[in-house]
Amino acid sequence: MSELISNRGECKDPQNMFAEYNQLYFGGRLPQYKVLLTIDHSRCERRKRRIYINPDGEDVSVILLHEMVHAAVGSGHGKKWLDEVRRLIELGAPLQEELQRYSTGIVATSKHLLDEFFDAGMDAPPDWTWPEIRRYLGYRSGITDKHGSARSRRLSRFLRRARSEFSRGRAFAHP
Ligand SMILES: [Zn+2]
After folding, report:
1. H helix intervals, the chain
2. pTM (2 d.p.)
3. What CATH fold (topology level) applies to the domain 5-103?
């Protein structure tokens, strides 16, 4: 894949965008990260200081900023992450839709939902098992009842994909 990506008609190197956003929104305080393109999940690997971006039809600025917020405050989309997103929005970052998407607790599309399971695999404490993750994320997103059982056959098939994303996340975090 090319190092250069097209963003609103101009070619911007995501590595340069990182440097630019670090100055603009973080006062240059984020450590140096390597920014790479991927056809896999967009993600932030803090220990390796790497951010992976999957452009996949979405706005690269938004994806990069999303991952930079993880670089700043860690994993998960809880209060810390949301507060940091709000701070960036006040500085002019185009993150309103991200804030909307994650602050409602409803992850809109199955792609985003699969990302959540992948992230959980990467970030959840090692002793969390699949049934626990399934119950926690599944119930929160309406896929399962509160005991972790899928609400329909379609959702049960979806959970199989979710489980393999979770396992892949685990493999990234604990190779
Ligand atoms: Zn995220």
Report:
1. 14-26, 60-73, 79-90, 96-103, 110-123, 130-140, 153-173
2. 0.66
3. Zincin-like (3.30.2010)
